Amino acid sequence: MLTSQRKRAILDALERDGQVLAADLSAAFGVSEDTVRRDLRELAAQGHLQRVHGGALPASAAVAPLAAREDMDVAAKQRVARKAAAMIEPGQVVIVDGGTTSALLVQSLPPDLAATIVTHSASIAVALAAHPRVEVVLIGGRLYKHSVVSVGAAAVEAMSHIHADLYFMGVTGVHAKAGLSTGDYEEAYVKRALAARAAETVVLACASKLNTASPFCIGGVDLAQTLIVDAGASAKLTRPLEEAGLTVVKA
């Protein structure tokens, strides 16, 4: 079997099964595991998959720059955002992550809502500046330009003084075994710290992020209690997450 044929077969198996194991591929192709690992390395470098211990998972497509991501899955993100906004009760302290779905969430807040929104996203804070009754707390730190959010030690220190009712977390990958993931090491650390400051963490995700992984793990799916996903997500994608303990809400 040619290298190109093996790679095509690997991607086909990944699409069909949701994951591949190097040992199984080695046996199926009649080649060494070293050969399979080389194939996986090359496919990962091309952005086709995310390598994990023992094999690979589908790579998340949600790793493009913010401007590009604003045009991805817009209708699905709007549905997720509206469902999330409806969870916020008057008087609550709510942490809102950066990202395109979070931007739509704050746009969906009713004008008479009186609540406190804590965010490490400058763009989210600016979007809320005109809201008549929402108090905005902006967490500072080093600007991570890809997602336009604050990261670093100063941001984590500021979070340690917050007790929030809800944290709406944005991710690039949700997988029952690989957990919640994102594309930047420091951003993963900040998201983990924010989850520790909230009574309930709610993950916002489109179906395209389910059963995918990114390079940096935020934590296991048990870091969150609820997942809001668009109604287009199939039971095949959501069932493993429910079995892992997440409450799945479809929008």
From TrEMBL:
It comes from the Bacteria. Gene3D superfamilies: 3.40.50.1360, Winged helix-like DNA-binding domain superfamily/Winged helix DNA-binding domain. One of its GO terms (molecular function) is DNA binding. InterPro entries: Carb_Metab_HTH_regulators, DeoR-like_C, DeoR_HTH, NagB/RpiA_transferase-like, Tscrpt_reg_HTH_DeoR_CS, WH-like_DNA-bd_sf, WH_DNA-bd_sf. Keywords: DNA-binding, Repressor, Transcription, Transcription regulation. Residues 3-58 form the HTH deoR-type domain. This is DeoR family transcriptional regulator. It comes from Paraburkholderia eburnea.
